[in-house]
Amino acid sequence: MRWETALIRLAELQARLLELTSAQPDEWLYRQFHPDLSPLGWHLAHCVFIEAHWIKACLLDLAVPTELDELYFPDRAPKARRGARLPLRDTLLAWSQAQQAEHRALLANGPLSHPLAQDAYIVRFLCEHHAQHLETMRMALAQAQYQKSPDNAPNDLPPALATVTHSAKSSQRPTWLPGSGISLRQGHYRIGSTESVFDNEQPQRDVRLNGCRIARRPVTNGEYLMFIEAGMYQRPREWSAPGREWLARSGAQAPGLWRRRDGAWRQIGPDGMQALQPEAPVCGLSWFEAETFARWAGGRLPHEYEWEAALRTGGMASVGQVWEWCANRFHPYPGFRSFPYAGYSTPWFDGRHYVLRGGSRYSEEILRGCASFRNFHTPEKRYLFSGCRLAYDA
Ligand code: AVJ
Ligand code: FE
User: Fold this and answer.
1) CA–CA separation, 386 vs 282, rounded Å?
2) What residue ranges define each of the domains in the chain, with the CATH number in brackets?
3) Is 43 in the pocket of ligand 1 (CB under 6 A)?
4) Going by CA atoms, what residue is nearest to atom 12 of ligand 1?
5) What atom in ligand 1 is closest to the CA of residue 46?
6) pLDDT in tens, 21-74
7) Helix (H, G, I), strand (E, B), or coil: what is residue 264?
8) pTM of this prediction?
9) Residue nearest to atom 6 of ligand 1 (CA)
10) Which ligand gives the minimal distance to the CA of 134?
11) CA–CA distance from 366 to each of 12, 197, 223 (Å)?
12) What is the ipTM of this complex?
């Protein structure tokens, strides 16, 4: 990518981080809306700090004060302590804006000679890094909205019975129409990317797939309602052993971003609460819910390679509406080498993280609908903008 193009993109993402943070009430910059999510102010400052690390310290060999390391390197600062240690609003915003401008100025004179500057690599990496933090900030905002909008009918029918008459619906399952999906023939498919800034998408290679059918679109709210109305949250025996344990522990009765108001389901997003749209992709699922739903519907989750092959084959609709949980765990491709730092992927090849593909409607455009991009999270998370897609053996 041209250096100038990468710089324009970086400036856009910097501005978006600053705008999103500035738009929040004071107290919201410091609050942790979920134990696994950092305060909004921390995300902004972390992104600024990471820019300084790569541009000043690594590329230009400039001295960078080390006293911020303890707060803004994620592995050094426990999430619960981040809010209390952040500077006050005005200082935080002014510092961020000034640092961002300084970083742009340092890059403005053209490509630097450092190897990491080749093809604007580190600038592109920063853009993709910031884009992911922006989405996490939107997840935190959705949690804020969730807390602001409690269910308003506590003595209402239990959730499984709340929407329509239960008995008529309970035996219904989404019907898979043979031939309606994308047919992936047995054969070899290209996986990974040579252009991606991320180490975990490389090296690119061909893998052999057995062939499968994969739905053209993600599972919808309407289809997921059938799963709820069939009483699946009340039937632990239909879940896998770890799924059952999660179900008991979480007390879940519906997707993590659903609320019940006036006897009907609503969807929570970063901007507030909306009526649940039956045709829209279901959003806010844990991997356990996605996996159990797929089995109940007579199918399974796709392996991430099947997902990638199907996207490249064409015909997959609504990509970029929700992240889609895949069947498999996050793992290194054969010949994996970590860059630009070991912490981006390597710690998460721990057997606990599952892959998500696609991108959500709250993802920045540069992340959305990319064939090779691999997101990864632990399976109990349900504050993500996450859904799923059905696959079937051929
Ligand atoms: C790949 C989205 C799980 O946000 O924790 C951001 C990306 N890595 N800064 C995360 C990331 C370092 C990562 N996810
Ligand atoms: Fe980060």
Assistant:
1) 8
2) 3-149 (1.20.120), 160-393 (3.90.1580.10)
3) no
4) 344
5) 9
6) 999 999 999 999 999 999 999 999 999 999 999 999 999 999 999 999 999 999
7) strand
8) 0.95
9) 129
10) 1
11) 12, 12, 29
12) 0.99
